Amino acid sequence: MSLDEASRQLEAAVHDARVSFDCIALGELERAHTSAITARAAVDAAEYAIRVEVERRASEEEGATAAREEAQG
Q1: What does pTM read for this prediction?
Q2: According to the lineage, what is the superkingdom (predicted)?
Q3: CA geometry: angle at 64 spanning 60 and 66, to 5°?
Q4: How confident is the model over 29-66, as pLDDT tens digits?
């Protein structure tokens, strides 16, 4: 997953949360519940994509630091 995917998932989560909010106001609790679940799933997917990217960058930084230290002696 990429950060673009994380952004897309967060946009979907916002939409689903808004649908859930509106459904509660309309008394459509089944649909509100379903939309809340899909919003949560989208947030979880976005969090995972962001975490993977953070770990990838940290790994790259560790590799670059080790290379610099090795080059210095």
Answers
A1: 0.81
A2: Bacteria
A3: 115
A4: 999 999 999 999 999 999 999 999 999 999 999 888 88
